[in-house]
Amino acid sequence: MSGSQKASAQQEKDNDGDESGQKIASGNGEAAAEDQSLSKRQRKKLLKQQKWEEERELRKQRRKDRKQQRRLQRQNHHQEEEDRGEAHSVRKRPRREVTSSSLKLVVDCSFDNLMLIKDVRKLHKQIQRCYAENRRSSHPVQFYLTSLGGQLKQSMDDKDKGWVNWKDINIKTEHYSEVVAKEELVYLTSDSPNVLEELDQKKAYIIGGLVDHNHHKGITFERAKELGIDHAQLPLSSFVKMNSRKVLAVNHVFEIILAYLEKGSWREAFFTVLPQRKGAVAVGQDGATAQEREEEDSDSDSDTPEQTEKRT
Questions:
Q1: Whole-model pTM?
Q2: CATH class of the structural domain 104-235
Q3: Residue 186 DSSP SS3
Q4: Which residue in 35, 212, 230, 286 is the catalytic one?
Q5: Which residues fall in a compositionally biased region of kind Basic residues (predicted)?
Q6: Segment 227-268, tens digit of pLDDT
Q7: pLDDT (tens digit, 9 = 90+) per residue, 60-80?
């Protein structure tokens, strides 16, 4: 390249540099002019937007940290709930020893055709109570339902479909005489002259599944005699005096048997189970209630000296 060409190229380069500088200066000038043209509020908004963009990653990390913290809090809360639930469960259901009894309790459901549907439904509820109490008992018995059918089975199907999954119960459509040996059977009926003193673990005690409001008085006693099986009544009169009749609901008889197996005392069993509306009052060894003894004492205190002398 000749000297004149070199000089020409250098001149062009200088010209380009001048133009670039002019453009930069022009750009800065325009930016400055633009800044000058923005109001104070607009400039503030622009700075805020720039700061927002700059802190984008920081906000993202903060959100991530908060999410992680909430997850840990939920896990800790869930664990605390589980711990409290386990502790409550232990307090509510203390561990107990369960000793199953070989004694059989049979609810005789062969009176279906003698009851109105409202009474059948009451019997259904009483049977539910028997089942629940036997499952909770520390001395559960061998529970039997016999002659199940008719209105009672229909009520159970309609109101309690889960009964088909009941555990620790023998549900039979057959009569109890076809299920248990005759020599084992003892019908519990308040009309029997025999008083049950103790329970025999080898026996099967039958409870009449009948809600009749005294419309069929004595029918269970007659059934027992017809079949030639043993019968007895609970020793209720020996320990309790009641305002109402001695006929008890199916579940009350069932629960009294369970309570006796647990406590070994008829007195405790009766007063644990009998509802207050029955007006149960304890009877002493002389056969009198506490109130009757107080009345006798009061009558004795009111005697005149002459009456006392005559008795002596």
A1: 0.62
A2: alpha beta
A3: strand
A4: 212
A5: 59-76
A6: 999 999 999 988 888 666 667 899 999 999 999 999 999 999
A7: 888 888 988 888 888 888 777
